[in-house]
Amino acid sequence: MLRIAVPNKGSLSEPAAAMLHEAGYRQRKDRRELVLIDADNQVEFFYLRPRDIAVYVGSGRLDIGITGRDLLLDSGAHAEEIMRLGFAASTLRYATRPGSVTGVGGFGGLTVATSFAGIVTKHLADHGVDAAVVHLDGAVETAIQLGVAEVIADVVETGTTLRNAGLEIIGEPILESEAVVIRRPGDSAQEAKVRQFLRRLQGVLVARRYVMMDYDIRSELVDKAVALTPGLESPTVSSLHDKGWVAVRSMVPVQDAQRIMDELYDLGARAILTTGIHAARL
Ligand SMILES: Nc1ncnc2c1ncn2[C@@H]1O[C@H](COP(=O)(O)OP(=O)(O)OP(=O)(O)O)[C@@H](O)[C@H]1O
Ligand SMILES: O=P(O)(O)OC[C@H]1O[C@H](OP(=O)(O)OP(=O)(O)O)[C@H](O)[C@@H]1O
Ligand SMILES: [Mg+2]
Q1: Which of 100, 127, 129, 217 has a CB 3.0–4.6 Å from the CB of 269, allowing a cystine?
Q2: Residues 4 and 82 sit within 8 Å (Cβ to Cβ)
Q3: Is residue 257 helix, strand or coil?
Q4: What are the residue boundaries of the Histidine biosynthesis HisG C-terminal domain, all occurrences included (predicted)?
């Protein structure tokens, strides 16, 4: 049985469960369920606090886990990132009241409030800045208003929360984060099952990013058409009953599909169809 840690709340929880479901795994129906066994796939899911996941995986009690890169690094746990999942993308950034300080270099003697004390303490030390770090659990923006800190370091996605709190971002991002799959370095237990799990998630990413495109094109134009739809490796070109035409099938990125269809049409392609991909193994 492969033992997998899954976030039980917060920004990671729903997209992680959705991705696992799309990859063909059973997921809990009730948010109070703490453990779920998917016997068909020989997998056991443990629904844990996102911050704790790296600790469980790092201790070797669980084989792999889904968490945020920022949470992994902040935990200091003995675990490493083995796959990027794309969701819960955010940056960790410093912010303060406009006009107070302009960069990390000016933080000396100030207090920085954050939920990521591990990362921030290291970042300040790396920049040779002697600032105090106060650890808060969340709603860090309020720390400045209440006089607990002059600077905060917090997760930023759209920046709306900071703007609403009247704060402004300073300096470069401390870290770029997203959801990742983590594992203990050098752990080779359950290797085949881990590889299979990763292939399934990779299949979901491919199915979300690409569509299948089919079209007919005159034989003499096929090279030009294929240049527009090169596929991941090589497109399939099949003969048609009408000898002057061929049928082409190729994967194209979903965000480019409409533009490519327009360009193929202008080139002379007809019967251009795109269909969704439900699952993939490349
Ligand atoms: N607004 C957001 N947009 C994208 N990612 C986010 C956002 N807020 C948090 N994250 C990311 O989600 C992961 C989980 O963070 P956390 O557990 O704090 O979740 P949360 O959504 O803030 O939940 P809560 O604060 O209610 O516990 C982290 O990797 C963090 O970078
Ligand atoms: O840049 P934005 O799009 O505004 O998103 C970033 C905000 O989202 C998260 O807050 P959350 O709602 O999870 O509250 P928290 O501060 O209690 O974690 C994060 O901590 C930021 O405050
Ligand atoms: Mg939060």
Answers
A1: 217
A2: no
A3: helix
A4: 207-278
